[in-house]
Prior knowledge:
405 residues; alpha/beta; Rossmann fold; seven-stranded parallel β-sheet
Amino acid sequence: MSSQSMNNNDTPCPQGGFIETNQTELVTSFDDFNFDHSLLRGVYGYGWEKPTPIQQRAIKPMMDGRDTLAQAQSGTGKTGAFSLGALAIVDPADRSSQVLILSPTRELARQTYDVIQDVGRFIEKLGIVQCVGGTSVRQNAQELEGASQIVVGTPGRLYHIISMGALRVDRLQMIILDEADEMLDRGFRDIMYDTFKTIPADTQVCLFSATYTDEIIDMTKKFLREPTKILVKKADVTLDGIKQYYVQCEREEYKFQTLCDLYEHISVSQMIIFCNTQRKTEQLRDLLEQNDFTCSHIHGGMTTEERQLKMKLFKSGSTRVLITTDLLGRGIDANVSLVLNYDLPHQDLASYVHRIGRSGRFGKKGLAINFCTTSPQDGYTMSELQRYYCTVIHELPSDIAALEE
């Protein structure tokens, strides 16, 4: 199947750039945000030199108390944007919980917690508490008894500790939803609705994600008040820095041999392989290990301790290949140069963007390879990905080594 036959969309795609319904003030230097000296010291100590485009646009509205609907491509500094927006508005002299940050997975919540801890380490009397599933509720409650100006966690655990009275939100100033499109989708919608009922009506709401559906955008009109909107045109969402290719495997049972062939021809520092089910990640890991390939896998069915260990090994470079489900499709920072979709994401087109966004982060070049069978479902998915995101996914060339140059 040629790349031409896989892109049936003849509609011209719009030019790239941000779409801003309220023209936002661009702040191009961290010095110009008028951060407290202790926060500014943390920013530069963390290694940030200047704000990324989303940080230039989103931090100031957050500091000004405006509801914010922000979108930016994967790997462009969204976590830094809302972390700085949160740190800039908290009052360390007030020990109560002032900012609530919710993420869909424990891994994302932990990553956000680590960033805020590091950047805010020079702010005296600042308390940052992490509350995620799979950890001790009693320990969370004990930590919240101290200073807890910023609380980071997952929806189920945060709602639980609010309901039991361990987390008081009567003085809450801001609630931030990371990966907001997923947080407002059907899987989390009910618990998010229940959570919003517990917080003060005048709480500032800030939403961040790389993708939004029209349905989610329409839904936000019900609870965002005259928000600053910073959105990205669909043509820009897939990231220019990521080369996208497909390999025609014909049948499902041919995928593994195709993967082994790729191993022989391409050399990458680290790679993430995405499968659609937990069972498939385990099957693929077993097959690779039986053929003397070193790899590891991670999925939502593992314990918190198992998941933490797998991520630690991968981020440290001890494991070069990590097989996973969409659990790691969003927001995880790692030195990944190649993402391989062993299975195409059929249920949710947005997950494709989040998956390939694990490579090409912060301006680096990335590579995404998709295994495609001749099934009607795979053909439809490839066609829709290219049509919706105004992109072309080319067939992988025979000279694979040249892709790494």
